[in-house]
Amino acid sequence: MSTSSATPAAVTTWNLDPAHSAAEFKVKHMMISNVKGKFSNLSGSLKLDEADVTRSSVEASIPLDSLNTGDAQRDGHLKSADFFDAEKFPIFTFKSTAVKRTGDGELSVTGDLTLHGVTQAVTFAVEGPSAPSKDPWGNFRVGLSATARINRKDFGLSWNAALETGGVLVGEDVAITLDVQFIKA
Fold it and tell me: What is the pTM of this model?
């Protein structure tokens, strides 16, 4: 039986800080401009492998009742059974399955995105995580930004209305942007 002199890699746990994190989306409206929305009250964790970031993993949950597009009537429609059906599917989740380095400080993070009761593989382009930084209260923090594009129909979000001028009211492609901070556990 041989013994290894290699030191095991340090894997640290970081909890998502909902006060300094947001998930945003944008989608084409009437085929002429983008409508943006924001989700708050995110939760999740990052298991950071300090020796090899590609062996790290992340999980996050986003409550659909936190949706805000700046228009209460539109928010209500988006939360209804026509779109997210927030009563039946109150949260959407992401759980990473693979992390690849794509450049200096850049990663490709693939994982299972579950939305509206449907799970699909989605890949996020990630900037970060940043180097740990100590806040004024003694906590260590890291941050990252992530972007992805999905087709909402892939998740069963197919409601739409035809326009008199041709085209549709709501685009299919949705851009997702995450800006998050994690606090070392």
Answer: 0.84
